[in-house]
Amino acid sequence: xxxxxxxxxxxxxxxxxxxxxxxxxxxxxxxxxxxxxxxxxxxxxxxxxxxxxxxxxxxxxxxxxxxxxxxxxxxxxxxxxxxxxxxxxxxxxxxxxxxxxxxxxxxxxxxxxxxxxxxxxxxxxxxxxxxxxxxxxxxxxxxxxxxxxxxxxxxxxxxxxxxxxxxxxxxxxxxxxxxxxxxxxxxxxxxxxxxxxxxxxxxxxxxxxxxxxxxxxxxxxxxxxxxxxxxxxxxxxxxxxxxxxxxxxxxxxxxxxxxxxxxxxxxxxxxxxxxxxxxxxxxxxxxxxxxxxxxxxxxxxxxxxxxxxxxxxxxxxxxxxxxxxxxxxxxxxxxxxxxxxxxxxxxxxxxxxxxxxxxxxxxxxxxxxxxxxxxxxxxxxxxxxxxxxxxxxxxxxxxxxxxxxxxxxxxxxxxxxxxxxxxxxxxxxxxxxxxxxxxxxxxxxxxxxxxxxxxxxxxxxxxxxxxxxxxxxxxxxxxxxxxxxx
Length: 486
Description:
CATH class of the largest domain: Alpha Beta
CATH architecture of the largest domain: 3-Layer(aba) Sandwich
CATH superfamily of the largest domain: Zn peptidases
CATH topology of the largest domain: Aminopeptidase
Number of domains: 2
Structural class: alpha/beta
Mean pLDDT: 93
Shape: elongated
Distance between the termini: 71 Å
Number of helices: 13
Helix content: 25-40%
């Protein structure tokens, strides 16, 4: 039986907890709850252009509604749909070398969609750097994977190896007149062959106004075979017969858009845009018998749930300017949701005073983070940078990794998230991240791997930065002569 004094103490403790919650509206428990929901197998990895992405979008919209955020999408909804155009290699395609036929995606990868009819002799080259035009012109050129002569440091990262080697040599050999190019795995490429097959069989994606064009070659097939085919392609006097067909589809993808109206009658017509992407890689059978769902907890459920938390905070205490929240679709396909919104904004583009974007904010060292858009030429607004740095110094005190923000960084990380289309429109933009890690784009990127405390701290940093911008007397100024290097 509790005494009167213990009951009073219980009330005092409960009151203290409630006061703390009220003082800091962004709570780790809320973020953890939402993260485990969004990164659950139920959404099957939220692959863009699938029903799984649409299911996640509906869930986000409902959570935004429950948080008190107003719909800011089209026609009074939380949604802005856009057409996602997919081109993929058709299973009607056939590949024969000598007397052997190769089964698409099981024995052979056609690296990118094309239409081609190839009937030509095969020539194997040991050193593609020294082969002459006359030796390969009009022929199918075969070579084995190798990092020889490639200075790109990413070539030593297993998941990058296949793409780096292919992109390095494909254009060079095509320029010499090759009719098709056949890459044969070495030991390392064989280890990532299944991953390459799962990604290549999706094909390529585009929207109107795409920032990226993913095709390496135009009409010249690139074929990737397993290492066991090496003896076959080395055999002299082989003929290659290939019929490559492609097919097109259009799928819906969607941005989820919500807002909290500002408290100042005049400044409420300006917006601080909080940005993140909701999609990930879906279901990919890369390792048979093991987990095939890429749940993308860090990439990018962390930021998706952070935006919900920030939205709740603004609803509880609005800033003078309005807060706009955009959960972009199809980021993994090529920044398509953010490109679409930047091209078709649902508020006047000139009314967007700043974009605070996040991508992966829940992993790596607990005391470090990255803020991109700080180092020139990526710094679009010194005013905005100074606000973010000042908020970090107030108590979060993350050690900031600036290396990934440099124009010289080989990963080009600045250009690979959803602030980029806005920066291209000369809107001041920052990119919050805790950077890639070993679970990046693997089935291991699960909710249990996320550092909830770090996620909470970076969420608070994004919120504090945005709240300061929302209440500043002047909007952040664009840097004079701001121009990205690409």
